[in-house]
Amino acid sequence: MNEQRHDQPGEVVVGVDDSEESRSAAGWAATEAARLDTGLVLVSAYTVPHRGLLAYDVMASDYGTILLERQQQRHRDIAAELLDRHPGLPISSTVETGHPVDVLLGRSVGAAMLVVSTRERGRFRRAVGGSVAQALAAHSAVPVAVIRPGVTGKRHGPVVVGVDGSANSRPAVGVAFDAAAARGAELLALHAWHDDMTLDVDERGLVGADIGDDALRQIEQALVSEELAGWSERYPDVVVRTVVRKGDPATVLLESAAEASLLVVGSRGRGGFRGALLGSTSQELIMHADSPVLVVRSAEPDELG
Fold first, then answer.
1. N or C: more exposed end of the chain, with fewer CB within 10 A?
2. Within the chain, what is the greatest distance between any pair of CA atoms?
3. List of domains in the chain
4. What is the rounded CA–CA span in Å between residue 193 and residue 175?
5. Rounded Cα gap, residues 299 and 139, in angstroms
6. Phi and psi at residue 167, in whole multiples of 5°?
7. Torsion sign, CA atoms 170, 14, 22, 59
């Protein structure tokens, strides 16, 4: 294992702390790196208080050295375990001072994906759950995989992707096709709609129309088919199944994720996935999905406005 090496483009970056949850996330990340035929980067961060007093600074320096050495040893232990399962997997390591979110975002630039666990423990306790996990998903330039404790996904389950026809969900659709192809898995494209979707109906030129559920379902089905058409041509070997349902998007996604190997969603939804991965919907998906959740942020500027 090479320590303190800058990660190369395309590698899988995983946040590691002193918790068992992050160790499990590292295992999932290693499997993804092997599947993608790329390397794995173990990343940890630590902070040492600084108060400007000489005696305190000496103690802080010693404390920082202890933290650094302890985390480096943990990386070596984890790397040894992972190499037993994935012989020959390129694994590098870095331990840096700074806020975990800043360190992870910096190290993930150009990576294939960023992986974090969700249990609020250890030195990544602020970064691995709750609002900061959402911040990572909102600001990372690469997809962010969030691994809940005890959740690794069904080995032979489908890849589930939330589709709403918006510019924000399109990158997620592409990543989902890629993930399904890499796994040899079925792709389940899921779209949920409900009575509060009048804004999106209006945007399609249907203002004032008296539209019943059956007619609206046909409209939503056409939207999903249009969204998938180009991708299906690029990935002819991926079997695609579409589900269009009336209901709460988060609830429908959570139900579908129960048998999934991976749940892929955009960083912000519109229409059927309005508010996805922001606010309460993001909490439900990240904290309760029975599969790994892969958040794909749109490249659009001012996305979170």
1. C
2. 76
3. 2-147 (3.40.50.620), 159-296 (3.40.50.620)
4. 22
5. 10
6. -60, -30
7. negative
What angle in degrees, to the nearest 10, is found between the helix axes of 213-234 and 170-183? 60
Residue with tokens 């150009």: 110
Each residue's pLDDT expressed in tens, for the chain with a length of 305 residues: 655 444 445 999 999 988 888 999 999 999 999 999 999 999 999 887 665 554 555 565 677 788 889 999 999 999 999 999 999 999 999 999 988 899 999 999 999 999 998 764 444 544 444 555 777 877 888 999 999 888 888 888 999 998 877 777 788 999 999 999 999 999 999 988 766 544 444 445 454 455 667 777 788 888 888 888 889 889 999 999 999 988 888 899 999 988 999 999 887 655 445 444 444 566 678 878 999 999 988 765 444 33
d(CA 165, CA 226): 8
What is the full DSSP assignment across the chain?
A: -EETPPPPTT-EEEE--SSHHHHHHHHHHHHHHHHHT--EEEEEEE-----S-HHHHHHHHHHHHHHHHHHHHHHHHHHHHHHHHSTT--EEEEEEES-HHHHHHHHHTT-SEEEEE----GGGTTTSSHHHHHHHHHH-SS-EEEE-TT----TTPPEEEE--SSTTTHHHHHHHHHHHHHHT--EEEEEEE-TTTHHHHHHTT-TT----HHHHHHHHHHHHHHHHHHHHHH-TTS-EEEEEEES-HHHHHHHHHTT-SEEEEESS--GGGTTTTSHHHHHHHHHH-SS-EEEE----TTTT-
Phi, psi of 53 (to 5 degrees): -100, 135
Predicted TM-score of the model (pTM): 0.83
Q: Which residue has the tokens 């199944």?
A: 241
Cβ-contact 240, 189 below 8 angstroms? yes
